[in-house]
TrEMBL record:
The record marks N7 as: Discriminates between blocked and unblocked aminoacyl-tRNA. This is Peptidyl-tRNA hydrolase. It comes from the Bacteria. Gene3D superfamilies: Peptidyl-tRNA hydrolase (3.40.50.1470). The keyword tRNA-binding applies. It is an enzyme of class 3 (hydrolase). Keywords: Cytoplasm, Hydrolase, RNA-binding, tRNA-binding. Its EC number is 3.1.1.29. Belongs to the PTH family.
Length: 188
């Protein structure tokens, strides 16, 4: 199950906080999923990938209540926590930077806090950087604003990298996928 976090509604469509939705939409287009159904407070599409059924999920609960969709879907489909991939925005990464992790804290992200509170803590994390707010901006203003034209190409590259990484992790396994798709540290 691949879950993109975001906020439903037209007014949030292109905001930084909808990074997860945008990534899952790009993955759906890449994999040929075009039929979304409303299930347990989420939009869900099913696609076949290498003989496996993959669920693409966009919670319709607003970001801070994402777990209300993720937890019940995970239990309904009898998925183990490591079979759940969560894609979301991260202010601590530069715009477009991808980071894959098998575990970790909520990092102050309210969507992740909600997923933890709904019984899922050991999921695979695909974090895509949205950068830090400008000095005069609040965090809320930052995450609910669209990307500016100067950083939009970097963000779009990050979404494309996340799509490739998700497919790579499905194909190779998460450990090999992390080795291949996480950015390499530069040696001095």
């Amino acid at each position: 199950m691949i879950v993109g976090l975001g906020n439903p509604g037209r007014e949030y469509e292109n905001t930084k906080h909808n990074t997860g939705f945008m990534t899952v939409d790009a993955l759906a287009a890449d994999m040929g999923a075009d039929r979304w159904q409303q299930k347990m407070a989420a939009l869900v599409a099913s696609v076949s990938f290498r003989g496996e059924t993959i669920l693409l999920v966009k919670p319709q609960t607003y970001m801070n209540d994402s777990g209300r969709a993720v937890g019940p879907l995970m239990r309904w489909y009898k998925l183990a926590e490591p079979q759940v991939y969560i894609v979301y925005d991260d202010m601590d990464l530069p715009v477009g930077r991808l980071r894959i992790r098998k575990s970790g804290s909520d990092g102050g992200h309210n969507g992740i806090k909600s997923i933890f509170a709904n019984g899922c803590t050991e999921f695979i994390r695909f974090r895509i950087g949205i950068g830090r707010p400008l000095p005069q901006w609040s965090v809320v203003d930052h995450v609910l604003a669209p990307f500016t034209p100067d950083v939009l190409p970097a963000f779009q590259e990050g979404v494309a990298a996340a799509v490739a990484a998700i497919k790579g992790c499905l194909e190779l396994g998460v450990d090999k996928g992390m080795n291949r798709f996480n950015p390499k540290k530069k040696r001095e």
